[in-house]
Design brief:
heterodimer, A: mainly beta, five-stranded antiparallel sheet, 11 strands, B: mainly beta, 0% helix
């Protein structure tokens, strides 16, 4: 089966940095996605990691360690618009398994 | 504009009344998928399709059917809906030939079964 864990909620201040951790135990692995989902909207793609290491995209970075079954999403210079749910998803040969999502609240 | 569309966006129905939620994409994607999203459970894959006439079960296929007769369309069929199928449903599509299968999601269909 697939087991993907991430914290339920996180709160941070505008301008700060937040790190959202994701651990996974899955029967197969072809890469890990991070998606952002604002309340009432569809998920949108943020990043994809298939090899170990850090991928940086502007204010967002994602890290993967396949041997540890671990990933994190780093959000820097937080803005109010970053208040959303962040979904970790493991890709197993075109089957996507999602974690329950982490709701990030950015305070002024 | 490249997009995935779903209809209807909102639906309230009664137990046992067959319904279909349509999904269409204009990006010529081979891959399409249906998910349901429930509080505390996240997104769970119902069915997916790698190409026309090719469909596979996801993690929660019971009570659902799909078909892929054309590349652009991937309807979700509930033959006899039950209250436990009340959920938010998302259709997604992706280009399986890319280095990775980034999926583009439709706007969602909120279904209530009474």
């Amino acid at each position: 089966g697939q087991n993907i864990d991430q914290p339920t909620e996180m709160t941070a201040t505008e301008g700060a940095i937040v790190q959202i951790n994701c651990t996974y135990q899955t029967s197969g692995f072809n890469g890990l996605f991070w998606y952002q989902q604002h309340a009432g909207e569809a998920p949108t793609f943020l990043s994809y990691n298939v090899l170990d290491g850090l991928e940086e995209k502007g204010r967002f970075s994602s890290f993967l360690s396949r041997s540890k079954g671990y990933s994190y999403l780093l959000l820097k210079e937080l803005q109010m618009k970053d208040s959303a749910s962040y979904l970790c998803a493991v890709n197993d040969d075109y089957k996507l398994s999602f974690g329950a999502g982490t709701t990030v609240t950015v305070r002024a | 504009e490249a997009q995935v569309t779903q209809n209807p966006r909102y639906l309230i129905t009664v137990t046992g009344k067959k319904l279909t939620v349509t999904c269409s994409q204009n990006m010529n994607h081979e891959y399409m998928s249906w998910y349901r999203q429930d509080p505390g459970l996240g997104l769970r894959q119902i069915y997916y399709s790698m190409n026309v006439e090719v469909t596979d079960k996801g993690d929660v296929p019971e009570g659902y059917k799909v078909s892929r007769k054309e590349k652009r369309n991937f309807p979700l069929i509930l033959e006899s809906p039950s209250p436990n199928q009340t959920s938010l449903y998302f259709c997604a599509s992706g280009n399986r030939d890319r280095p990775y299968n980034e999926q583009f999601f439709g706007p969602g269909t909120r279904l209530t079964v009474l």
